[in-house]
Amino acid sequence: MKPRVLVVDDEPLVRTALSETIRRKGFESVMACDGEDALLQFKRTPAPLIFADIRMPRMDGLELLKQITAIESPPRVVLITAYGSVETAVQAMKEGAFDFLMKPFSAQRVEEILERALGAETPHPADGPASTIVSRDPKILSLLTTLKRVADDSASILLRGESGTGKELFARQAHLWSKRSQGPFVAVNCAAIPESLLESELFGYERGAFTGAITRRVGKFEAADRGTLLLDEISEMSATLQAKLLRALQERTIDRIGGSRPVEIDIRVVATTNRDLKEEIRQGRFRQDLYYRLAVVPVVLPPLRERKGDIPLLARHFLMHYRNLSGSPVREISSAAIKRLEEWSWPGNVRELESCIHRSILLCNRTRLEPSDLLLEHVIDLPTTDQIPNVADGSFRAMEKQLILETLAKVGGNRMRTAEILGVSVRTIRNKLRDYREEGKILPIAGRDLAASTASVRESS
Fold first, then answer.
1. Closest CA to 301 of 76, 142, 102, 121
2. What is the dihedral of CA 398, 400, 401, 402, to 10 degrees?
3. Tens of each residue's pLDDT in the chain, 461 residues
4. I need a labelling partner for 449 at 20 to 30 A (CA). Which of 19, 22, 237, 388 fits?
5. What distances in angstroms separate CA 59 from CA 33, 85, 99, 353, one per listed residue?
6. CA distance 226 to 221
């Protein structure tokens, strides 16, 4: 099927001339007379590339650009104008435009843009419906190319990046692009499960294997058979389990605890870490042979501060997502607010940006987010696991509370993510936090508050 290009202009002669040039290059052209018409056309038949005039009745090109870049897997947008200026061009690029076309334009100029936008080998999120990664950053798009090329192989993938860079999202994308996409995707957070339980969680056990094993239980490896197993935070796995994992990857079999014969498995393993595993090897905390088994395809995700061009795109994406969920009156984010976001260092990466936009939408009662609505100062100084000592000789309730608060700290206060990691419902997490509130503890909304809450747990245990 020929790639489709949407041409949006209120001047019929310009629409027709541009469409003819596009068709001569072998692409399909669809025409719209203004921004509103273009949105309707795009919903009916999505296109990976849009040429849109800036000055149009009803909805102009800049408003169309804002709305179209806020959707998932947005197309590339080229803005057209006869009244070009440096300021307009800069504004268009800041809003996420792919390029800028001045009237009158030559066929050669249009063909150059078509070649760059649709002729390049680098895939774009709009190229496939399965893509869930929102980005225009060349490095991210290159990493997606790598994932797509190796998607159908069973080779292990090691995703390394700071917390909040989207490692699990990339793991899910690799699964969706693979021939295993119809199989299960099973995620295990190696840091969230106590070491004494992780082995049985991963490999399962037979009835009577130990006290309390009243039935046979299938582990995560078997649950992921013919699919993908995500081992999140692999660097937290103990040396004993590292050896057992190495054997599973080499032999493609696992042994249930208490089992008498190996069980064959057909899985692809994707592991993630926010640590430098080569340094962990030098420190004797991680097996070198396991590293090379896991890092057949190594992928390093850049932090958000190194891909600031994605911030406007991601901010509008999260705005549209949470606006629709909450029924908020917020419809857009101002250029000044975008500039404020671009100036922030984002220690929590994309996850921090998402939380910031979500919180701002909930608290804002206007139609446009301004810099004063962003409340960036409330999401700094999240404590690390090393800063939260264990509860020694504490009660079960105190240890449970500490586990919940530590997990909340790791995921930036995200209750849904905490529930997923701990294997409980969001309602359970919400009820636990309500109980803590009634006991007079500080809720873990911000990093410093969380540290205070966790400290109070230690004091009471």
1. 142
2. 90
3. 567 899 999 888 888 888 888 888 888 888 998 888 898 888 877 888 999 998 888 888 888 888 887 776 678 888 887 765 556 666 676 677 787 787 777 888 888 888 777 764 334 444 443 456 888 788 888 888 888 888 888 899 999 999 889 999 999 999 988 889 888 999 998 888 887 788 999 999 998 888 888 888 899 999 999 999 999 999 889 888 999 999 999 999 999 999 888 999 999 999 999 889 999 999 899 999 999 999 999 999 999 999 988 898 888 888 888 887 788 888 888 888 998 999 888 888 998 899 889 888 888 888 889 988 887 754 434 444 444 445 444 555 677 777 788 888 777 777 777 777 776 766 677 777 777 766 654 444 444 444 444 444 444 44
4. 237
5. 10, 20, 19, 28
6. 10
Instruction: Give 217's DSSP letter.
Output: B
CA–CA–CA angle 348, 122, 134 (5° rounding): 30
User: Tokens in use for 254?
Assistant: 């696992």
Contacts of 38 (CB under 8 A, 6+ apart): 6, 8, 32, 50, 52, 59, 64, 68
Amino acid at 312: P
Q: Within the chain, how many helices (H) and strands (E) appear?
A: 19, 14
Tokens representing residue 51 in the block: 């040429």
Note the pTM of the prediction, 2 decimals: 0.58
Distances in whole angstroms, Cα of residue 178 to Cα of each of 153, 231, 250, 267: 8, 18, 21, 12
- List Cα–Cα distances, 264 to 206, 224, 248, 255, 361, in angstroms: 16, 12, 9, 9, 49
Cα(436)–Cα(431) distance, integer angstroms: 9
Alpha helices in 45-185 (DSSP H): 61-69, 86-94, 107-118, 138-149, 167-177
User: Residue 266 in contact with residue 218, Cβ under 8 Å?
Assistant: no
Contact 135, 147 (CB under 8 A): no
Integer CA distances (angstroms), 185 to 127, 171, 224, 225, 250, in order: 23, 9, 6, 9, 21
How far, in Å, CA of 279 to CA of 129, rounded?
A: 38
Q: How far apart are CA 314 and CA 308, in angstroms?
A: 10
Q: Letter for the amino acid at 125?
A: P
Strands of 306-367 (E only): list them.
Answer: 332-333
The rounded distance, in Å, linking the Cα atoms of 366 and 330 is: 6
HEC readout, 115-155: HHHHCCCCCCHHHCCCCCCCCCCHHHHHHHHHHHHCCCCCC
